[in-house]
Every structure is written in C-alpha cells, then in structure tokens.
Task: inverse folding
C-alpha cells in the first residue's frame, strides 16, 4: 500500500507535497515523511502517525525548496515507527527513496549489503533500494535506479532524488501504480492521479517496468534499459473530481457517503436504463452480441466489501440471467488453476481499481484466455485500464475507509448487468419493463431507508458496549449479513460474524448468550417465515435480537428486542436497502466507542500489496 507524491518545478514544494499526501492518506496512515533536495544535499523530515504529525514537525523545523519526494505509509515490514518511515536514504545521504510495494528478496539483498559493511537504519524492505542505487551510481540517476530495479524482486512504485542531481526526480513502476503529472509550474510523480489535483493539468500512466525522469522543464519515460517510450497524456479534470474530498458539512466522510447513496445510485443508472428495449445498456463492455449470448459461466472476483457485492451478484445473475456464477476472493483466485473454457468471463469488482490481489487475479484470468470485465469506481485506475471492458460506478470519490456507497452502487450495477444478460436470454419484455421500473424507484427507497437513522442511534446506545455481534440473513440478504459484520468489525473493533441465518444451528449458535446480540435481516419476502423461525431459535437461548424489518411488522416486533424499519422493495433489491441501517449502526457504534470512523486502525482504503 502506501502513497507517494513527488514534485519538481518553480513552486514551493512543501505545500504541494502535504496536499498530495492528504489526498493519498487513504492508502495508509501509519507514518509520513518528506525529503527535499538542493545543492546543499538531502533534507528529511519523518514522523510516525498521521500527516498532521509531519505537518507539526515541519512547523518546528521547516523545509523549503522546489524539489522533493514524500510518502504516507501502511506498514508491511517493520512497525509503524519514525525509524521505519520513508523516505529512506543511503549511508552517505546522497540518495533518498520513497516506495510503494514490497521487495520480496530484501532479506537476501540486505544480507549481501551488510556483508559489504553497509549499516541499515530501519527494519523495512525499502531500505535496500537507496543502498543499491548508491552502489550503481555512475553519474546517471535513471541508470542507477534501473540497475537497482533489476536486482529486486517484488512490486514497487518509486520516486528517487539525489544530491548529485538536485531538481531531478526518477520514478519506476512494477506492480504498484505510478502516474506523472504535467502542470504549468512543474512536474510530479504520484501513486494516483487524485494526488495531483491541485497542481497538474495532464497525467501520464506508467506501465510496468517503465522508468520516468522529471525536472522543472520536462518529463520522459523509458522501458527499463531501453529507448524512450511515447506515452499518451490524459486530461486530469476528466479523471478526478477535486471537490469530492470535502466533508460538505458532515462530521465524517463515511456519514457523508452513506447519505450520498440515493444520488450515487441515480448516477450508476443514469443513461443505462433503456425503456424502449426494456433492458439496461452499457457503453464500455466491448462484448459483441455473439460473445454476449455465448457466456456460459461468470467468475466474479474481488476483495472485502466488493466481494460481498459479488456474492449478491451471484444471486442476481442466477435469478435474472440464469447464468452460473462463482464468486472467489481475488487473493485465492490468483493462485488457483480453475478449468477454463472459452465461454467463461471473469468479472473483477473493485472500488479503487488498484487492489493488488484483484488486479493480479484479473491478469491471471486474461493470461488464461478469459474475457475480463471490471466494475470499478476509480476512473483510469489500473483495473479499469487493463480489463477488456467494464462499467464505471460513477459514485464519486469514496474517502471513508469503510466502503458504503461503492457497495450499493456495485450491487446496482450488477443488477443492471443481470438484466442486460437476462434480456438476451429468457427475460421477456414485460419482465424487463417491471425490473427497470423497480430499479428506477430504488433511489427513493434508499432515501426513505435513511430515515431509520434516529432509531439506529437509539439501538447503538444500547449495544455499543458488547464484545460480539452476529449478523444473520438468508438468500439475497446473506451477503448483506457478511457486509454488516465487516462494517462493524472494521470501524468499531467489535468482533462480528455474518452467517446464513439457518446455518447458526450447525455451530455458531453456541456463541449466543444474553450479551451477544444478533442482527437479523428479516424484511417480508419468500423466506420471511424461515428467518422468523431462526430468530425464535436465538430468542429461546436468551440472545438479544435487533431486527431489520418491513415497516410496522407486528410479527417481528413481538419477537425482536429492537426493530429498525426499512421500506419494502422487491426482494432482488433488498440488499441495497437493507445495507443502509447496517452502515449507520456500525457508524453510530464506532462514534460511541470513540473510534476513528474514517481512518480505522491497521487499515487503508486501497490495498495495493498482496
Ligand atoms: C471494507 C472495504 C474493503 C474493500 C477491499 C477491496 O469496507 O472497503 O474491504 O472493499 O479492500 O477494495 P476495492 O473495492 O477497492 O478493490
């Protein structure tokens, strides 16, 4: 993980780097650091903890200049201490490096360097890089960085400065994203385009094994050890919505993003619902009608919350499109060897478009000859660019580490895709018309679901002290139970488990006692009676029950201790509406426990390491 931003030009570099780091903090917030370079040498400030700690270090001991590199860390090798914070420098202080990725053979390289008398000053894998660059230095920074990248194994996005070449920054990429920013006052290198929003106008995406060089006057890209490459430039304003990162009056990004869901769903559907043909339409799938009809199996792959969206997608595709679906964690799929046939497509689901495991699973599927599609939120991200076709969520930037609006938008896009595939097969015009009309009503239903917030606050008061919570649902709502449990775990640090409600009696019911509440997803639908029975089983064992239920459901109220009402919607859309109270519950409990809602401990928004 980690985020890097570097700038060289005619502007004061410190405000640019600090603003860029704030925009990259979603990639990790264990420590932060900056190095500037000028004729006098390299000057470093680093602090463990948030960027605010680095800012106050800079208040105490200011840095100035026009050329610098910086980093915000998510610790992989070595604890989150100042000694392990980037930038890392070589022994002589001639080279400084910031790195996103993992150097897998660092122990072996470190041993070799130590045998040669080099003294390491951190526990990181990264520190081998400045020592290697110093070793390979023969007057050309691009050449030295290139040589160093040839001996390391693993993944990297790098930015490097040298006291021998003040004003020049060299970047290199393998497996971790890197972009060049081109602006009127200088050039930059960053982990993503969003970090460049305050000073660049155009961006260039680096490909794996490419090395770049920037200075105040220009930029160039070459493929490791070879000739210069011509790269396409992209207009930054079309990629990044600068305003999205603001709180807009909300106390936290997560709450803002929960409340943005009606609008996000409207945006996901905009221009994609086709009343004339009673279907959904997509511009970028790049599947011709023959390929579309030929699809016999879909492998959905993702991590975390996006994986849960995929699980809902499995129900949707089987119900509406009658296509068999497998959903697999990307971290597992990338090392599996599933039998391939020509009519299987792989669908990667990802908010950030940069999750390392999802990207690797997509690449592996491509290599095996599958057509690959992606559902992505981040425009221009690695996965969006590498998939054969795809659909953007258009949910706007998601800043809160706990994913909310991306989840419901992903499910909405999966629902539209299921209709699209279904209409090429067995769904009739009238069925298509009904489904499209139901989708159109969805943003209003989600708006109405948000009215449960006051009830959720009261429920949160009653349960914020507990140590364990169970989340239970069936069918379409089983993945939502998993998602509710994940939300609570990640932002309140309460242990929570999601289960199919009927599976409880095969083991987990042993956990139930007076101190362990169960959150039941029990709106009216086909399995309502079955879920009610499961709820009775918990009550019989004195387990407190919080029910997410249809409005004024007296039957539920008789059994449950607390009821949170959600509007009635058709069953296939219940996952989207039922997710709302679970997001709010996790949020309110997190607040009551004094946790950092938007930046929970040990996590980062974008997981760019394996
Ligand atoms: C949880 C959460 C994570 C992400 C996961 C995948 O709230 O946000 O579980 O869903 O890291 O990230 P993306 O969707 O960016 O691939």
Result:
């Amino acid at each position: 993980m980690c985020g890097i931003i570097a700038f060289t030009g005619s502007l004061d570099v410190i405000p640019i780097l600090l603003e860029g780091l704030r925009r990259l903090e979603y990639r990790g917030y264990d420590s932060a650091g900056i190095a500037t370079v000028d004729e006098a040498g390299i000057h470093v400030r680093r602090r463990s903890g948030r960027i605010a700690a680095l800012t106050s270090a800079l208040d105490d001991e200011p840095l100035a200049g026009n050329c610098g590199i910086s980093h915000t860390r998510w610790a992989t090798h070595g604890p989150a201490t100042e000694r392990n914070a980037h930038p890392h420098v070589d022994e002589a202080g001639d080279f400084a490096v910031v790195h996103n990725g993992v150097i897998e053979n660092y122990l072996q390289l470190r041993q070799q360097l130590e045998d040669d008398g080099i003294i390491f000053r951190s526990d990181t894998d990264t520190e081998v890089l400045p020592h290697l660059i110093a070793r390979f230095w023969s007057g050309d920074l691009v050449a030295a960085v290139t040589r160093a990248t040839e001996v390391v194994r693993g993944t990297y996005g790098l930015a490097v400065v040298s006291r021998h070449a003040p004003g020049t920054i060299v970047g290199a990429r393998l497996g971790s994203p890197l972009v060049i920013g081109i602006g009127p006052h200088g050039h930059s290198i960053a982990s993503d385009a969003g970090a460049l929003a305050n000073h660049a106008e155009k961006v260039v995406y680096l490909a794996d094994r490419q090395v770049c060089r920037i200075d105040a006057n220009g930029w160039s890209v070459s493929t490791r050890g070879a000739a210069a490459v011509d790269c396409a430039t992209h207009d930054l304003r079309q990629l990044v919505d600068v305003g999205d990162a603001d709180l807009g009056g909300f106390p936290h990004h997560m709450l803002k993003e929960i409340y943005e869901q009606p609008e996000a769903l409207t945006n996901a559907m905009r221009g994609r619902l086709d009343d004339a043909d009673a279907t959904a339409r997509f511009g970028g799938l790049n599947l011709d009608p023959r390929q579309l009809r030929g699809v016999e199996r879909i492998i959905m792959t993702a991590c975390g919350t996006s994986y849960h969206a995929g699980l809902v997608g499995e129900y949707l595709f089987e119900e509406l499109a009658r296509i068999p679906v497998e959903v697999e964690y990307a971290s597992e799929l990338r090392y599996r060897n599933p039998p391939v046939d020509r009519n299987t497509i792989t669908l990667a689901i990802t908010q950030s478009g940069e999750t390392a495991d999802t990207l690797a699973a997509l690449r592996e599927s491509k290599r095996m000859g599958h057509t690959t599609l992606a559902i992505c939120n981040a425009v221009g991200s690695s996965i969006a660019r590498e998939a054969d076709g795809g659909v953007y969520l258009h949910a706007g930037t998601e800043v809160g580490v706990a994913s909310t609006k991306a989840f419901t938008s992903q499910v909405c896009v999966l629902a539209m895709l299921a209709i699209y595939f279904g209409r090429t097969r067995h769904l009739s015009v009238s069925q298509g018309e009904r489904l499209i009309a139901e989708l159109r009503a969805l943003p209003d239903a989600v708006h109405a679901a948000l009215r449960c917030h006051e009830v959720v606050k009261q429920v949160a008061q009653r349960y914020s002290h507990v140590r364990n919570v169970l989340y239970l649902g069936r069918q379409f709502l089983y993945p939502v139970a998993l998602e509710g449990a994940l939300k609570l775990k990640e932002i309140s640090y309460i242990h929570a488990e999601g289960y199919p409600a009927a599976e409880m009696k095969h083991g987990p019911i042993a956990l139930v006692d007076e101190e362990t509440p169960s959150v039941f997803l029990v709106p009216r639908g086909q399995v309502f009676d079955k879920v009610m029975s499961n709820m009775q089983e918990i009550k019989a064992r004195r387990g407190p029950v919080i029910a997410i239920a249809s409005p004024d459901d007296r039957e539920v109220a008789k059994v449950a201790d607390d009821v949170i009402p959600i509007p009635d919607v058709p069953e296939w859309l219940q996952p989207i509406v039922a997710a709302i109270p679970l997001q709010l519950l996790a949020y309110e409990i997190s607040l009551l426990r004094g946790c950092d809602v938007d930046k929970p401990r040990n996590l980062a928004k974008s997981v760019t390491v394996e």
